[in-house]
Design brief:
The chain is 11% helix and 35% strand. With 277 residues, the chain is mainly beta. β10 and β11 (221-228) form a beta hairpin. The longest helix has 10 residues, at 58-67. It is globular and about 50 Å long.
Length: 277
Amino acid sequence: MENVRWKMENKLKTITWVNQFSYMKNKLVLLLLILPIYVCGQIKTPHFREGNKTVDLSKEAIALLKKYDFSSLWTFTDNAYVYGFIGENHQRIRVKILKVTKDSLNEHIYHISGKTMVKTNICEFSGDIFITKIRKYEKTSTGVDGEFANKVTNEYSLTGNYIFFEGKTQVHTGVFKGIFQTDFYLDKQNKLHYDDLNYASDSFTNNQFVGSWKSYSSNLAKLCNWGDYRIPNSGNFDIGAGDFSPNTKDVSLEWQTVIESYHSEKAKKEETSTWWK
């Protein structure tokens, strides 16, 4: 079996690898992270946007990890706009991250808890996000019509690994494992922000999770990707121009309310429901 290789697009140069973990509460988690992820085909990483950075800023990356708490980045977006699929047929999965806490001893690790829903099956999960890289975009966005001009210092991208465990006593449960990309920016006061500078762009997305789900009971593995506003690596499944739009007529895949929400108040209400409560 080949080791997992994170092949990132050369649109950005690496600021630093931050993969030397000085502390790990659970050695089993680390073991699972370095094992290969087997799904139908190789996992493709999310695409970075245009921009190149050639200066090595290792000290800056370490300082960012120590100084900032990135927890709010993963709970920022309204869940109605977090879309995901599981399996080759693009069955809908809803993912809600409810709580994020930065590890008190290792700035690379964030502890996660939340819920997933496939059809009517809702499951709790918990696990960890491991930040392994920080990158900096060469060009800083100024937003629509330059509304953020002179208000932003730099835009960055966090990448790394995640592993989330659903409770074994629940129905149809397993382990989510893969890689992620999350963008943020710092303003002129060096305050941390979720990167929504290009929110008005048709291709806008953030918090991209790419990986697999593996069943506890059968060892069945399925592709499982999700993200804010768009699903990473969804190919021709997303046919939306201005907004995400699933390319399917199969109502069993649970995408019908997304399709109808643009003209149906009932469907919109379903999409904005707090299903995790």
